[in-house]
Design goal:
- The chain has about 400 residues and is an alpha+beta fold.
- It has 3 domains: about 50 residues, 3-Layer(aba) Sandwich (Rossmann fold); about 70 residues, Dna Ligase, domain 1 (2-Layer Sandwich); about 240 residues, 2-Layer Sandwich (D-amino Acid Aminotransferase, Chain A, domain 1), CATH 3.30.470.
- The protein is about 30% helix and about 25% strand.
- The chain has 12 helices and 17 strands.
- The protein has an 8-stranded antiparallel β-sheet, with helices on both faces. Strands 4-3-5 form a 3-stranded antiparallel β-sheet.
- It binds ligand MV4.
- The site of ligand MV4 has 17 residues, from β5, β9 and β10.
- Ligand MV4 binds next to β5, β9 and β10.
Amino acid sequence: MPAIISAAEITGADAIHPGYGFLSESAYLAEVCEACHIRFIGPSPNVIRLLGDKARARRAMKKAGVPILPGSDGPVDSEEKAQKIGKDLGYPIIIKAVAGGGGRGMRVIRAVGELGKALKTAQREAEAAFGVGDVYLEKYVENPRHVEFQVLGDHHGAVVHLGERECSIQRRHQKLIEEAPSVAVTEKMRRKLGSAVVDAARAVQYTNAGTFEFLLDDKGNFFFLEVNTRIQVEHPVTEFITGVDIVKEQIRIAAGERLSFKQGDVTFNGHSIECRINAEDPDTFAPSPGTIHAFSVPGGPGVRVDTFAHSECTVPPYYDSLIAKIIVHARDRQEAIARMRRTLEMTVIEGIKTSIPLHLKLLADPDFIAGRLSTAFMERYTPEKKSASNGLAEAV
Ligand code: MV4
């Protein structure tokens, strides 16, 4: 943080965009920026803090009329209380860290006998990982889809949504393929949940860009998970189908300008898919840092590549393995899949291993092609045994 603030002061920057990395959801960085008279391009520190507490976020959403899963009203601190809630909900249930998010610090409980020990372990792990040991309980949903809504709010009370993204293709809580729209969301569902998230964003005085995450069960029910108070890696699929430059809107909003459009102006055109290209072995998922000796990605209509990579650049071992995002846009999902396959087949990245061969397999999978997706989809492509935490692979 001091290095970033120093860089802003030396260069005379009047605003900082925190991206989607480690500091992007730091209420403290937002506060430090405020104190240094540098605009933080994101929500207010108070909103980041409210939504960073997953139990408070749940309460706020419930109050605003957003569907949440049955669960505890707040943190649960004793085995007796947990047992009572477990009995009311029926098993399986899930223990989540109040300070967690993104899948970190979760535990699935399938029978009352596991509860006492799991509660203590979860509290201890949450304390060690986040410095806050509080945990809460929810009914567990098996093999749901992960669907999220993009919202934008300005400092004049205007809030709009830009529809949803389907993000079910993920491994260890790292998404691999995202698309917009979701094949599981009808226009009616989009309007209904879209208006609920807009109401909720307004209720918490949300400003700038945010993502409301939901589980979608096989009966078409949405359940709120959490709000990400940053721009996300997968925002380009929404930009493609809406034509809205979300990052530009973020900067305009931070500068105090009004949103440049209304909800009624938002239209959804065609279908967009993003493949995350990681520097990793496509079979074992082991990191593959090194020097890229050839780097060539084709362009053409409806193809966008967001990357820092180029021939002879190095991929250091110290950071996230994401080296490029390839995003396509086409008239419909079938055409988007074909366009992505053509683009990946023509892409040349030499010197390191990448996830491109895995993406080509996924794009040829009959379930993927049919849109039969769930958060369990990647289990078939994962070599290692399920982790000790009840089948939920731990996030890093
Ligand atoms: C759940 C769940 C099932 N039931 N909550 C993982 C990320 C975090 N935001 C919440 N997560 C989950 N919460 C209940 N009550 C299943 C997951 C989950 C998951 C969610 C979205 C995308 C991928 C996932 C992979 C495993 C588990």
